[in-house]
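Checklist before submission:
- one chain only
- standard amino acids only
- sequence pasted in full

Submission:
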Amino acid sequence: MELIDTHVHLLHPKQFTYAWCAANPPMQRRFCIEDYREALGRVRSQVQVQALIFVEADVPTAEQTDQTTWSAQLANRDRGEPPLLAIVTGAAPERPDFPAQLDRLAGEARVRGLRRVLFTQPDSVLQSPVLGESLRLLAARELTFDLCVRPRQLPLVTALVTQCPQTQFVLDHAGAPDVTGGEFQAWREGITQLAARANVVCKFSGLGSLANPKLPLSPQVRPYFAHCLECFHPERMLWGSDWPMSPNLQAWFEATTELLGELSDHEQAAIGTDNARRIYRLN
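Returned file contents:
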């Protein structure tokens, strides 16, 4: 089974500010691409990661352009395995000056998408006409937009993506369901509505950090995977790790092997690699 890891964070606290790490002690250190590869090398699995995509880690708006330049330079000079192929960089599309920011960010060839952590923002941001206007600009640049939201925001997200039918959206972490708490129904309804919009794909990633670490992971995430598969179908699902936020790669690979292993070879390839290559233009 081959995979493209579409969700890897790299943290360099001497260069960038990660305010959210203040409440998360395990994240208060450097996590570089070599650390990811070492963690990957310790995984006992027949699964092979072909490539990875760097996803921004919620740096302040003032640092987003510098983060883009830094990560693009890293990708350009990187010769490691698996290779770093593309970047989903941070942006502030809710700001009126976003078009100028977009010009700067889109100037880097390695940038294939943008992301804004929206679950930390008030609902008024998701409902802002400025946000919709900004995200409609991405289609002409062939840039995606990763949606980092929580289940209660899914109805607002559905309204947002409906306003931007030409823009490709990627739902991070399957909408971040409360796996530990078992709150399923509201998330299920929100996913069903959102998946009806053809311009949204679902990234099945990060659920390892949302589950109970004391229990086997596969049974916990299976109902969420099954519903995403039913709604998005294999043609609109991607795979990712969310390392280092989800640090237990062994458990996530075991769950991945079990869940994807029940699908056909064609379906496995779609979720594992093919959709990532298409959505993030990796070819």
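Reviewer check: The longest strand covers residues 48-55.
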